[in-house]
Design goal:
Blueprint: H1 15-27, H2 32-44, H3 49-53, H4 63-76, H5 85-98, H6 100-114, H7 118-127, H8 134-149, H9 161-180, H10 184-189, E1 194-195, H11 205-212, E2 214-215, H12 216-219, H13 225-245, H14 252-268, H15 280-295, H16 304-316, H17 327-336, H18 338-343, H19 352-372, H20 381-398, H21 409-421, H22 430-440
Antiparallel strand pairs: 1-2
Length: 451
């Protein structure tokens, strides 16, 4: 008797995390919302890798929740055997060498490309995470990226990368469970039947997810394996592609180290190893194939234009000069290309003067960089401009003193120190660092505002 063919990636989720959430919600005596509240409080204590690798449920934790989380962590809270410490260390160096440029690429490349896949955008739309709470979505993403890429974030006991990733993994499982009103494995066993919408009050995000409804046959599982693999691609492949398009591409061995490190992250997130590319060529092929398949099955009504508009508006609101406000749209078009421009409805008319300034500036900068880099290898105006751009948004979105990132205090202090140290670009001459500080309105190393 022949074995059944495996389900498509869109119909596969994360059995380990899904079973843990199903056990928690089914075994708790109170309501689902009470169980989720207890889990959220417990996750808030996962502040370091040491805590999750040696976790013991606090006294008074309901037995089903303690058992489910303990079983999950026993399997999930360790790096894969193939993780390479040297490549991870190199990727950490690269992230902080790129510094604020990393944040520019997050805002104008990784996040926009993430919203191109209709079903993935549909989940975000249901949760209202971007249209209504754009800064929350950006900050939540940063709250995972920074602990992962901090030095020792994945490999030391005091690091917090593993802890943050596993929180996100359980959040994904909770979203799947609420949207499908049960374990995803049950939905597949039932033939992918549609979950009908409920006409009930939506008092919070959990109600919204639970009441929304979902057509598994048409849209696949929410947060399925293909969508998780695609999201991972936006964090490593799209980041590296963005550097190439800005004329700041990395040597092949450095690109390999960056891909490898984020594949380690993918493993911790519950992504199947077979879906994670090992080279830039494989990553490009996978990225293009997933986008092409996704465009054949639109999620209706299409949430992508509203998501794109919300992200662009959030950036434009932080730019004081009217003539420069179209620059986030123009930079996103440049980094993501024509197809994404149409998907996210970023093809609206833009002030002609702004377009000319952007195009002329980009061409001039790339030209100057190409010539002067022959004699000054560390010189790059493009790097300086994108660092300034990234600094502004990092400070506004991530380091706002009234809304600090939800990170362990030790990690938050590390992030703050890293942002402060990013003031001096080691690859730029001193005069360029001084100019960058003036343009960014950043304080100098001595704590004084440039005048």
């Amino acid at each position: 008797m022949s074995e059944l063919a495996p389900a498509a990636p869109t119909l596969r989720a994360d059995p380990l995390a899904d079973d843990a959430i199903a056990a928690i919600l089914a075994g708790h005596d109170g309501s689902q919302w009470d169980a989720i509240a207890i889990v959220n409080r417990l996750l808030g204590d996962w502040q370091s890798n040491a805590i999750v690798t040696g976790w013991r449920a606090p006294e008074g934790t309901p037995a089903p929740i303690a058992a489910a989380l303990g079983a999950f962590l026993a399997d999930a809270a360790r790096l894969p055997d193939w993780a390479d410490a040297r490549q991870i260390a190199r990727a950490e160096e690269l992230f902080f060498d790129m510094s604020m440029l990393s944040c520019s690429l997050l805002f104008c490349a990784s996040l926009p490309e993430c919203y191109v896949v209709p079903d993935l955008a549909g989940v975000l739309h249901v949760a209202g995470q971007l249209e209504a709470h754009c800064d929350y979505r950006v900050r939540s993403t940063a709250a995972m990226i920074f602990p992962v890429m901090m030095r020792g974030g994945l490999e030391t006991a005091e690091g917090a990368g593993i802890a943050q990733i596993l929180k996100v993994r359980l959040i994904h499982a909770t979203i799947r469970h609420l949207i499908l009103r049960g374990n995803p494995s049950a939905s597949i066993a039932d033939g992918g039947i549609a979950v009908e919408p409920l006409d009930a009050p939506c008092r919070n995000m959990y109600d919204t997810l639970y009441n929304n409804g979902w057509d598994v046959a048409a849209n696949g599982l929410p947060c399925n394996q293909e969508e998780l693999a695609y999201t991972l691609l936006t964090f490593h492949y799209i980041f590296l592609r963005g550097l190439r398009r800005l004329g700041l591409g990395l040597p092949q061995q450095d690109e390999q180290a960056y891909l490898h490190t984020w594949n380690v992250v993918g493993h911790l997130l519950g992504i199947e190893t077979a879906l994670m590319p090992q080279t830039m060529e494989q990553a490009e092929a996978s990225f293009n194939a997933i986008q092409a398949r996704a465009r054949l099955s639109p999620y209706l009504p299409d949430p992508r234009p509203a998501l794109g508009a919300a992200l662009m508006k959030a950036m434009q609101d932080e730019i004081p000069l009217r003539i420069l406000k179209p620059f986030p749209v123009l930079l996103t078009r440049y980094l993501c290309g024509d197809a994404a421009r149409v998907d996210l409805a970023l093809n609206q008319r833009v002030n002609l003067v702004s377009c000319i300034l952007f195009a002329a500036g980009m061409g001039l900068v790339r030209g100057i960089d190409s010539l002067l880099r022959l004699v000054l290898p560390g010189f790059s105006i493009c790097r300086m401009i994108t660092r300034i751009f990234g600094y502004q948004f990092t400070v506004k979105f991530l380091m706002n003193e009234t809304r600090p990132l939800k990170l362990p205090p030790a990690v938050l202090n590390q992030v703050g120190q890293a942002v402060q140290n990013w003031g001096n670009d080691p690859k730029a001459p001193g005069w360029m660092n001084a100019l960058e500080a003036r343009l960014a309105g950043r304080r100098t190393a001595g704590g004084q505002q440039p005048c």
